[in-house]
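Checklist before submission:
- one chain only
- standard amino acids only
- sequence pasted in full

Submission:
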Amino acid sequence: MTPYTPKSIEPKWQSLWEESGVFHAKQDFSLPKYFALVEFPYPSGQGLHAGHPRPYTGLDIIARKRRLQGYNVLYPFGWDAFGLPTENYAIKNGIHPAEVTRRNIARFKQQAVSLGFSFDWSREVDTTDPGYYRWTQWIFLQMFKRGLAYKKDMPVNWCTGCKCVLANEEVVSGVCERCGSEVQHRNKSQWMLKITEYAQRLNDDLDGLDFIERVKIQQRNWIGRSTGAQVRFASTAGDSIEVYTTRPDTLWGATYMVMSPEHPLIDAWKDKLSNFGEICAYRSEAAKKSEFERTELNKDKTGVRLDGVRAINPVNGEEIPIFISDYVLISYGTGAIMAVPGHDTRDWEFARAFGLPIIEVVAGGDIEQEAFTDCATGVMVNSGFITGLSVEEAKRRIIEWLTAQGIGYEKVNFKLRDWVFARQRYWGEPVPIVHCPACGMVPLPEEDLPLTLPHVEKYEQTDDGQSPLALLTDWVNTACPACGGPARRETDTMPQWAGSSWYFLRYCDAHNPSALASKQALDYWMPVDWYNGGMEHTTLHLLYSRFWHKFLYDIDAVPCPEPYQKRTSQGMILAENGEKMSKSRGNTISPDDIIEQYGADTLRLYTMFIGDFEKTAIWKSASIKGCRRFLERVWALQDCVIGGGVREELEGEFHRTIRKVSQDTEALKHNTAIAALMSLLNVIDKAGSITQGEYKLFLLLLSPFAPHITEELWELQRFGGRITDQTWPTWIEDKCVEATIEVLVQVNGKGRARLQVPASLAGEEVLAQAKQAVAALLEGKTVVKELYVPGRLVNLVIK
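Returned file contents:
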């Protein structure tokens, strides 16, 4: 027997798979289809680290199994390649971003191929390819024509170092998370997408999807649907202040009001406010914080009272003070809230800090000690005409009253805000809009797409924060498509999220020159059957792509209302020190090094065996050796192959293993599926030989996890064809029944004996035999509790 040498075996099979096109999805639309999808990566210069193979291997196992089950499988891959890091690298090194991207993609692809993923490389997409982003621009134009893409002046986070707008999540302690430069709040005209038009559907349609629960919870929390009332408070300045509240029944407990520091009424009241200078100073400090920092629940409560203007509670006519505080955002709701400190922890803490009255309006608790927040049900007190009513009845009655008085109405509200859809950078999709003095904003004719990026000498933004495209006068100055007069092109580019919001559709028909994909291909392949990706993309990419897809469904461009039928997420693999892997921490592990030392199959096996696929796991380099030894034992089985099918005495073991591996892979319990194969190998070793029929079954079951070694062994044994041509084995339930089972006997939680008993033996009999097995330990003791976990263990508690 030749030794197991992954360095020669693995490249051989990778080349054979690519040459044969065995993983290319077939164009035969009469076959049952299966669309398996992983999130395509941003191709950074660092390449893959050891955490990346986990999601790709996890779904590769499913894709390989589906092919063996007779499905026409589409398991594609591509590159989400526009983005800031590439542009910053280009600026620093004087290399065109397209060249940087090309190099990075080549590096990433070489690594992906070396891991044996069964991707259909014939459908590879790259978001920076004009043939691809032509359709990104086309989708944008359809949104613009229907009023879902618009421009708006709004406050943004401006990084003085990167010279671009940052998302709230990218601002930490007033500085840019990426470069550490100061972040300023500026007003800029920004492209927006009206995702809020789809908020209700994005929320409700989660019910019919096979998404893991934590994904649904995160999406619903981000969308933030609530039902309440819009209420108008009068003020001593004569203006009215609109608030939205989910608890209009607690209006009698509203003892003060809080407004966002940016609320426009504050400037309107400038001459009435005796402490306007103090207010302005507080505003300046608030402007340095991100929205995330401003709304943290555990931060100190700060604010400034407006001296000179008070609000009037609409239900009792009492004047209440108004404060500004940074935890109230102008971008959410109305930018003002009514504060009910008796029943809201943040309001209670604020009231205590500023010496404000606290009134109980729902019975229960002790508001002198803390806010009574368990008040979703209960009875109203100190609440005028709704006193004595239940909370639900009180809500109904107060909304009726507010409506009748013309000072309020029932309203559904969402936390979700429209999507800022612009970057003042070079390396992104150009926005296909022309600004005409006579016609306004005019869409580029669809036949003129793609609008490609022009060549620039410098990639830095202008000093006033515009894209470097703004300096290209020959490109910017153009004719209006509507009137033919002089006009200017839009110089903002789209954010990186644009290309990833529809890429799964392009995989269906990746090279179609006349449509984003043909109707026939979309009808066949969509929706995606199984989509796996990181939890960090749940509230951005996943939500954005569902929004784009619903829009495309509304204009009859796609055949189904949702893009993904099933969504799962892998846990992160941490470095050996328990920290997140990152180049800056110096704790990344290169898959290239692992492949060089142990082979790709060992790496694949280890990343699946490391723990529960959906939970965080810590990388342990020493543990990789165990997976390599397992594969060496599988390789060594060649020396003990005998003729024949599955032996009768091992038939139950094989059927149980087929069932276990089949079921556990579907539940992403790849670690326990591998453990079952390891257990089966132990049984085979005890038998001293393996028949050809048994070896075939074993290799088939192992092949999705370790495809190279199994293909090689299949060929060496001359079993005929290749594993990729075979059929996934099935089990017979009756043959899975064990004649005998092993039961662990514990005394006070410690293992003391093992029993071999008939599988059908009644629990009372098992307990009796267990007591007999540990009789010496029970002598002179009293059994105070006995527990039998069928088929597994007995625990006897003695005194």
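Reviewer check: The radius of gyration is 32 Å.
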